[in-house]
Each structure stands twice: as C-alpha cells, then as structure tokens.
C-alpha cells in the first residue's frame, strides 16, 4: 500500500465541470470579459453578413485578442490553441474554440477597434 494519494485521471465528474468554478475571482480573464460585456458592440453585431452557420459572438472574438494582448499572446494560432490548453482563455472563449482564421479575419475586419492595442503589442516581450 502506497502512502501517496492515488492518481485517478479516468474518474468521471458527477456533473460537467464549470469553467466559472475553476477560475479564481479577480483573475484578469474575468476583468476582460466584464469590460467587453460593458461595451456597445451593436456595430460589430450588425456587420455580420449572416451567411452560413451561426458565427461566434463579436464579444467573444473581441475578448480573445484583448486577453491575448494583455498576456503577451498575439498570434491567432496561439490564441486558438490556448482555447484548449488554458483555463483562463477557455473562460474568455465561453468554452468555444474559434479557429485562427476566424480570429485573424475578425481582427482585420475591425482593425480600428484594435488600434488602442498597437502600442502594447510592440512593448510586450512575453508570448504564450
């Protein structure tokens, strides 16, 4: 009998886990979501052509790069990967996984909304 705690990676949860419960209060990701939810995104919502399958909400597509910029992650591919790997990014993405093309296209289409990030992108030496 070992004196270590058992490793039980294959045990199922009784209920699906909530990302909300696992992310600590006061985390930067919570602040990003709160700020973006307070913005008037009606222009971005109207800009969607409405073709094909339902798109990701503009609040999600705006929150992900903001969180990425705040943490030093500027690449759409890395942000996409972080929606799987990072609990905080998963929270910001509302447990969705927009692909890098969607993120990059959104960033290009609404470049004016991202102007205020240009200085921080140049000054941050870290990455994700």
List the main descriptive attributes of the protein structure presented here.
mainly alpha, elongated, 128 residues, 8 helices
Element layout with pairings:
Elements: H1 19-22, H2 28-37, H3 42-46, H4 58-71, H5 76-85, H6 87-92, H7 100-109, H8 118-123
Helix pairs in contact: 2-4, 4-7, 5-7
What's the overall average pLDDT, rounded?
A: 85
Low-confidence stretches: 117-125
Q: Percent of residues in beta strands?
A: under 5%
Work out the helix count: 8
Q: What share of the residues lie within helices? A: 40-55%
Helix-strand sequence: HHHHHHHH
Tally the beta strands: 0
What class do helices, strands and sheet pairing give?
mainly alpha
**N- to C-terminal distance:** 41 Å
Rg calculated over all Cα atoms: 17 Å
- Main sheet: strands, sense, barrel: none
Shape by Cα distribution: elongated
């Amino acid at each position: 009998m070992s004196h270590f705690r058992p490793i039980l990676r294959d045990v199922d949860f009784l209920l699906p886990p909530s990302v909300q419960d696992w992310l600590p209060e006061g985390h930067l990701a919570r602040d990003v979501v709160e700020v973006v939810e307070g913005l008037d995104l009606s222009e971005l919502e109207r800009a969607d052509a409405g073709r094909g399958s339902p798109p990701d909400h503009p609040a999600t597509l705006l929150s992900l790069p903001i969180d990425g910029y705040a943490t030093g992650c500027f690449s759409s591919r890395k942000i996409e990967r972080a929606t799987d790997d990072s609990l905080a990014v998963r929270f910001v993405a509302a447990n969705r996984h927009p692909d890098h093309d969607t993120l990059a296209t959104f960033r290009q289409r609404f470049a004016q909304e991202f102007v205020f990030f240009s200085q921080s992108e140049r000054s941050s030496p870290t990455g994700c």
